[in-house]
Amino acid sequence: MAGHSKFANIKHRKGAQDIKRGKVFTKLQKEITVAVKTGGGGDPAMNPRLRLALANARGANMPKDNIERAIKKAEGSQDDNFVEVTFEGYGPDGTAVFVECATDNNTRTVSNIRSYFNKYGGSLGKDGCLEFIFTRKGLFHFKADGLNEEDFTMEMIDAGAEDVEFEGEIVTVVSEMEEFGNISKKLQELEIETLEAGLKRVPNTTKEVNEKSYPKFEKLIDIIEDDDDVQKVYHNAVLNEA
């Protein structure tokens, strides 16, 4: 099978010591809110988007009480009307950066995202400027407990998977966007609980960042990810260590 790195979207990963648990839970709570309000209410059985949001929350070890409160708040509140918006721009050395947000104040979010790009040697582009750089793929991550690699790989391919990668204790399944629902259904049938699943933006090409520019690039990604309105950040950068 193809290497996992081909599909990993080369997303910037902070060291474990820098992960802010509260930030992670805040983004998950917002996704639950958006799922309830746009996906058909607070019943996971009737709301596929909410089912996915809850699976990701459980995969991140979000406490059950937090999850239940987020659903109840979303069902009862008329205030949390988030709008989903995306931003496309270029970072140092021409790297492509795609930002997905959920915001209750688009003017604030646009201003913040533009300022981050400007501050760290990038520029905000027009909608669609990265259309050919990223492709949306379905990505699923879960534990390999008890799975036979060869048998499971063939089962996933039959269900519509494009690639299956066993890496240590974790399995990654990749699919075309159109096959996301089929893979989700198959994993449910097999009673496999995902650690994370969703439609991700995978770069078709990568862009090298030289060693001098890389610290600025890292700061750009960090400050974008830390913004409360930002849900996900994707880029196509690789470090040219030479």
Task: Considering the chains and any ligands shown, give keywords for the structure.
242 residues; Arc Repressor Mutant, subunit A; Alpha-Beta Plaits; four-stranded antiparallel sheet; 7 helices; disordered N terminus
How would you characterize the overall build of this protein?
There is one protein chain. The protein has 242 residues and is α+β, with helices and mostly antiparallel strands. The chain has 3 domains: 16-76, Orthogonal Bundle (Arc Repressor Mutant, subunit A); 85-124 and 210-240, Alpha-Beta Plaits, CATH 3.30.70.980; 134-202, YebC, transcriptional regulation domain (Alpha-Beta Plaits, 2-Layer Sandwich). 38% of the residues lie in helices and 26% in strands. The protein contains 7 helices and 10 strands. The protein has helices at 21-39, 48-59, 64-76, 106-119, 149-159, 180-189, 214-226; strands at 83-90, 96-103, 123-124, 134-143, 161-167, 170-176, 196-203, 207-210, 230-235, 237-240. The chain has a 4-stranded antiparallel beta sheet with strand order 3-1-2-9. A 4-stranded antiparallel beta sheet has the order 5-6-4-7. A hairpin with a 2-residue loop joins strand 5 and strand 6 (170-176). Helix 1 packs antiparallel against helix 2 and helix 1 crosses helix 3 (64-76). The chain is globular. The chain starts with 20 loop residues before the first helix and ends with a strand.
